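Can you make up a protein sequence with its backbone structure tokens?

===
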Amino acid sequence: MTAYRLVFDHLLTRVDAERAHRWGFGALRAAGPVMGPVMGPVIGPALRGGGGISAGTPVSALGLRFPGVLGLAAGFDKNAEGIDALAALGFGFVEVGTVTGRPQPGNPRPRLFRLPADRAVVNRMGFNNHGAEAVARRLQARHERRTRSAGPPVVLGVNIGKTKVVPEGDQEAVLADYALSTRLLAPWADYLVVNVSSPNTPGLRDLQTVERLEPLLRRVRAEADAASAERRVPLLVKIAPDLDDDAVQSVAELAVVLGLDGIVATNTTVSREGLRSPETAVHAAGAGGLSGAPLRARSRAVLRLLRERVGPDLALISVGGIDSPEEGRVRLAAGATLLQAYSAFVYEGALWPARMQRALTVAAGGTP
């Protein structure tokens, strides 16, 4: 057991989860100006296969070159405030958001909980974020800084979702809301993810039906093309693990028909089956999306379904319960193009991404 695990299990679990996240991420961002210049030259050659603390294997996907197969899932850096500091820890790509068209505070607190016995996290954050305009300004400023001095190599994904006050039953309003986010954010994103699968925005998951999803993805694709005329921004959709198998296959078929660049599978689950945590702890956490180890089996199953249906070429980003090199290898063998993590990063600490990236080198085709 690592020193971080001991501290986490015996100390950090006593601190409110959202407060602990804010403190930890704040410290990471504060160290960012030092970490970028110092760690960039170290991690850069390492990620290109030259040894070092992260030694990831570059992966070609979505028309991009990812410095490593493991990335950070959306939800950790909601407002694009610490991309390069996170990259300096060894993540090959960072997906920020979920960002909505308008700023919103999210759901009432407390809204983030840990279930340590399950290595799981429950959240009902509700897309709390600064809004697409503020995040776009931040990404533009970052882009201008990086043209002057390069930080650690990293691919940037931007995850967009529906503003809560937009009525889910008003199709035109929903399309306009996603279109606003796309226009503002696509120029700064290496890839764009349409999130229709969080359980914490009322009615959002209804957008996963093919009838609702097709016009939404077509609109986002058109807006992204118009906003980034000199390049094509890859477009993906993120789906829930709670879809039944037929619905998963329907989304897969739609992705192929529309020429999407990929699918992110999966988001959090509303299921509480098979948990080891005491019932009192599960009840205290309440409603919301569950992430972490309990999601592993369903996330694997959805990945296999998708790969069987979409064939070998469409990019699949697998996320949900990936907490060890062994699990990462299982996902890659099952057809994942790239991997993402969130809960394992929370439980294992800042040194974990580099360890994972290095351990996954062999599975991704590199040398240890």
Summary: The radius of gyration is 19 Å. The chain is about 40% helix and 15% strand. Confidence is low (pLDDT under 50) at residues 38-55, 363-368. Residues 58 and 67 are 4 Å apart (CA to CA).
